[in-house]
Amino acid sequence: MTIQTAFTYITGAISDLYDEREAANIAHIVMEYLTGMSKLDRIVHKTKILSPDQNQRLKLAIEALQRHEPVRYITGSSWFYGMELLVNKNVLIPRPETEELVEWMVHDAAHRHRLHLLDVGTGSGCIPLALKKSLPDAQVSAIDVSEGALEVARSNAARLRLEVNFLHMDALNTVQVAGLPEFDMIVSNPPYITQSEQTGMQESVWGFEPSLALFVPDNDALLFYRHISQMALSRLVPGGTLYFEINEALGKEVVALMEQTGFAEVILKQDMFGKDRMVKGKKI
After folding, report:
1. Helix 96-108 vs helix 126-134: angle between axes, to the nearest 10 degrees?
2. With contact defined as beta carbons under 8 Å apart, do 256 and 249 qualify?
3. Burial (CB count <10 Å: 0-12, 13-18, 19+), residue 110
4. Are the C-beta atoms of 141 and 117 separated by less than 8 Å?
5. From the centroid of its chain, how far is CA 262?
6. What is the pLDDT of residue 195?
C-alpha cells in the first residue's frame, strides 16, 4: 500500500464517524505517526510503499478509530502551546481553548519576576509546563489526585526539560491543601461537565478520556470551583489571582461564586469561539 492509498483508506474507513474535513485531519495525523513524514514530504513521496510494520500499525490504528478512540491516544502525543506532550487514557487531551487561559496568565505576568504559580488538577501537565516555558524564572507547582496523570505530567516535564514541582494531592481534601505554601497565581481547569451533558458529547470523549477529569454531579456542578476558590483565598498572597477554565453554561454562576467567596475584580472572558470559557478573580 502506498502513502497516498493509505491516506485514502483511512478517510474511507472513518467516513461514517466523522465529516470529510475532520476525517482528513485525522488521516493526516495517523499518516505522520506511521511514517514520521510531514504533510509536504508525504505529498512528494506519495507513491512510497509502506513497510509491513507500517501496514500492521495502520490496521490497528483504523480498528481503534472505528471504536471511537481519539486519534491522539492512538499516536500517544498531542500538541499544546508549541509543545509536543505525551498523552494516554490517564489524562485529558489538551484543548486549544486552554491555551487561551495560559496566554491570559502569561500576559498578566508580564514584567513580573520570580512568581510562584500553582495548577490544580494538572492532568498531562500542559498548563504548568506552558507557564514554565513562558515564564522561566517562575516557580511552578502542580497537583493532581491521579497518580497515573502525574506519571504522564512528570514524563512530559522530563522530555521538555522544564522544572515543575508535581504533587499527589486531592484538591477537595482541605487538610492536604492547607499544607501548600502561598502563591501569586493559581489556575485550574477542573472537571466541569455535568453527568446529564454526557448524552450530547462524542463517544470519543466520554468513552475514552478519564471521567475523573471530566464530570461533576448534576446536583453540584460548581463542586470544584467552590473548593478551589476557598483554597485559593487562603493560599494566595494579597493581590494574588485565581484563574479558571469553565463550563460555557456556568459563567455567571462561577463569577457569583467567586464574588461570594471574597474575590474582587472578577472577570468573565470568552474564548476564540465566543463562548464563556475563563474567569479571573483577585484576592484583596
Report:
1. 40
2. no
3. exposed
4. yes
5. 28
6. 65
User: Is residue 136 exposed (0-12), middle (13-18) or buried (19+ Cβ within 10 Å)?
Assistant: exposed
Q: Which residues of 32-48 are buried (b: 16+ CB within 10 A; e: fewer)?
A: ebbbeeeeeebeeeeee
The predicted structure's pLDDT at residue 150:
98
User: Which residue is listed with cell 494531592?
Assistant: 169
Please list the alpha-helical segments (H only) found in the chain. 3-13, 20-35, 39-44, 52-66, 71-75, 96-108, 126-134, 147-160, 174-177, 203-206, 211-214, 223-235, 251-261
Q: How far is CA 65 from CA 9, 35, 79, 138, 282, in A?
A: 13, 18, 19, 40, 44
- pLDDT, position 79: 96
Residue 235, classified by CB atoms within 10 Å of its CB into exposed (0-12), middle (13-18) or buried (19+), is buried
Weakly modelled stretches of the chain, pLDDT under 50: none
Per-residue model confidence (pLDDT) at position 208: 66
What is the rounded (10 degree) CA torsion for 78, 133, 129, 201? -40
Q: Grid coordinates in use for 155?
A: 514524563
In 10 A of CB 211, how many CB atoms?
A: 13
Residue 180 identity (one-letter amino acid): L
Cell numbers at 261, concatenated: 467567596
For 153, phi then psi, to 5°, come to -60, -45
Contact 195, 217 (CB under 8 A): yes
> Rounded CA gap, 84 and 117, in Å?
22
Residues 134 and 102 sit within 8 Å (Cβ to Cβ): yes
Residue tagged 526539560 (cell numbers)? 161
**What is the distance of C-alpha 126 from the center of its chain?**
6
Q: What is the DSSP letter of 49?
A: B
Q: How far is CA 197 from the centre of its chain?
A: 19
